[in-house]
Amino acid sequence: MTCWLWERRERRIAELAKRLEVNVEVTQHIHGLRREIECQVSGENVERFIGEFVRRC
Predict the structure, then answer these.
(1) What are the residues whose beta carbons fall under 8 Å from the beta carbon of 26, sequence distance 6 or more?
(2) What angle do CA 51, 15, 47 make, to 5 degrees?
(3) Alpha-carbon distance values, 43 to 17, 29, 33, 34, 35 (Å)
(4) For residue 7, how far is the Cα from the chain centroid?
(5) Reported pTM
(6) Which of 9, 10, 17, 35 is the most buried (most CB within 10 A)?
(7) What is residue 1's predicted lDDT score, i.e. its pLDDT?
(8) How many Å from the N-terminal Cα to the C-terminal Cα in the chain?
(9) What's the half-sphere exposure (Cβ side, CA atoms, 13 Å) at 5?
(10) What is the CA radius of gyration of the chain?
């Protein structure tokens, strides 16, 4: 899952992950002037987290 607005919404996503008790690992890849932020989510409520993430991000 990627979210190009990660910097603006980092706190909201971290709070959502904590509330749903999932682990979020964020990696950043820089390709010239282009930057990609990738998240890997693990835990019991991953599908619920993804659903909430899509609605909020």
Answers:
(1) 6, 37, 38, 39
(2) 25
(3) 10, 24, 33, 30, 27
(4) 10
(5) 0.67
(6) 17
(7) 47
(8) 11
(9) 9
(10) 11
- Going by their DSSP bridges, the two strands 34-43 and 22-31 should be labelled as antiparallel
Element (H, E) at 39: strand 34-43
Distance CA 21, CA 27 (A): 20
The residue count of the chain comes to 57
Q: How far is residue 30's CA from residue 51's CA, in Å, rounded to a whole number?
A: 27
